[in-house]
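Changelog entry: the Uridine phosphorylase record was regenerated in this release. Current contents:
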Amino acid sequence: MNKYYAEENEIMYHTGLSKELIQNASYAVVPGDPARVEPLAKSIGQNAAFLTSHRDYTTWITYVNKQPVLVMSTGMGGPCVTFAVEELARLGITRFIRVGTTGSIQENIELGDVVINNASVRMEGASKSYAPVEYPAVADLMLTHGLIEAAKELQIPYHVGISVTTDSFWPGQERYDSFGGYVRRKLQGSLHEFQQLGCTNYEMENATLFTLTSVLGLQAASICAVVAKRTEKESIAPCEVYQQAEQRFQQVVKTFLWKELSCEK
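Regenerated structure tokens:
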């Protein structure tokens, strides 16, 4: 596959970034929520600085062992992820670490735990523009192992498994607390089916990220903190649990990156 890298002074149309701005960074930490970017950048590295904010994509740069690491929001859902991956890849980013929140669907996965997904069920649509449905959405083995080792070292409760990536937060995840409360017949019972298949959690970006990076010869991993336990109820956890969950994925990513970039120097 041919690779079309950006020109030296070219500014990416959707993200507003250029090669000069990202300073030869090879890692990008990619939350969905723009509000998570600044605290992530400040928590995982040193001398964090704002770069730009354009559409869904708010970007900061931080430094881990004096090496630049990009932290950029992707917005919610697979289509937004495709813009992020395509434009960051053209600028030279090769490794993506997704962080976010998620709803667990297995009884043993508690609120505040983290889930490190090694693969995803492709219940979204964006990845289908890049590969047929038979193509697996799989995380990079080495990056995933690094996140697992960091969680172990920090003694943060973690789980490894297959997520279910959807385009819809409500009917796509068989939620009945929407405005209409309607779930298509095709999706009724899907939560139970995915539980029986051993899937661990619902989220909205992994399958697109994993598929794109595999197709494009890049690497990606994902860590999500549990803020809804779907085996008990559909609602989001209280604020203190939400904050603890975010702190945990920040700690794991920080530990992973400092080890990884210390080895690479």
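The CA atoms of residues 112 and 245 lie 5 Å apart.
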